[in-house]
């Protein structure tokens, strides 16, 4: 069992979350690398927001929008951007033997995915059973969430590590400069905090930690995403759970 405490637990607040993804079926991680400074990105983000309505809910696809910071010097500073997300995109490109990064870029389970609509995404999802299960529980405490994540690996699974992110839905920005000047941009599944990787130890690992909310993050519109990836970034299981009132 792996126990990590970033800070002592604080009094419980108004957000609780709970979710599980069993080993019988894999949920896929869909990463979107995006920026408010990119005029090609709003259609990709709108498409991402429509996944559940298209029948691709979090039991099948866990979406995360990573706002990169390398657009910030080109006219508009994206308040959701982080150098951590730009580094993750560069790491993914390097694993594929490339130095090219761009927005919007989508990856499914760590593999570059060329946009082909909801039907194309369905056809790209793995059809076999997953060999790993995930569970997550969380409760608001002070400036963030006390999280407990559990990973259970089946026989034959390669060495894996666990990643966590806090995300937020229903965000809006009125852009006053750059390629999207004058537009009201809407965002869902925006990564606000990223933690990991945490190497797994044995067939069952339990991780406990406190993740802080980003500045201005609304707990009631937030959630936690958890996924397992190997050293090459290939995702073996994913899970998302949304906050509800406690």
Automatic annotation (TrEMBL):
Q: Which PANTHER family match?
A: LIPOPROTEIN LIPID ATTACHMENT SITE-LIKE PROTEIN, PUTATIVE (DUF1223)-RELATED (PTHR36057:SF1), PTHR36057
Q: What protein is this chain from?
A: DUF1223 domain-containing protein
What InterPro entries does the record tag this protein with?
Answer: DUF1223 (IPR010634), Thioredoxin-like_sf (IPR036249)
Pfam families annotated for this entry?
A: DUF1223
Source species, domain of life: Bacteria
């Amino acid at each position: 069992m792996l126990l990590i405490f970033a800070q002592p637990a604080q009094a419980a607040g108004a957000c609780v979350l709970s979710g599980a993804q069993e080993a019988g079926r894999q949920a896929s991680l869909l990463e979107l690398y995006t920026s408010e400074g990119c005029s090609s990105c709003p259609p990709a983000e709108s498409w991402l927001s429509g996944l559940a309505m298209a029948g691709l809910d979090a039991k099948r696809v866990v979406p995360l929008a990573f706002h990169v910071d390398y657009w910030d010097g080109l006219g508009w500073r994206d308040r959701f951007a982080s150098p951590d997300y730009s580094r993750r995109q560069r790491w993914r490109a390097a694993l594929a033997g490339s130095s090219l990064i761009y927005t919007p870029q989508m990856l499914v389970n760590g593999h570059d995915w060329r946009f082909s609509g909801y039907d194309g995404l369905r056809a790209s999802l793995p059809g076999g059973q997953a060999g790993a299960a995930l569970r997550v529980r969380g409760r608001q405490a002070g400036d963030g969430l006390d999280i407990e994540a559990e990973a259970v690996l089946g026989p034959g699974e390669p060495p894996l590590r666990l990643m966590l992110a806090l995300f937020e839905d229903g965000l809006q920005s009125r852009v006053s400069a750059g390629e999207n000047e004058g537009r009201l941009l809407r965002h869902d599944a925006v990564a606000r905090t990223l933690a990991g990787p945490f190497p797994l130890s044995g067939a069952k690992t339990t991780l406990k930690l406190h993740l802080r909310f980003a500045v201005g993050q609304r707990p009631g519109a937030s959630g936690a995403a958890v996924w397992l990836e190997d050293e090459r970034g290939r995702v073996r299981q994913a899970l998302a759970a949304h906050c509800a009132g406690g």
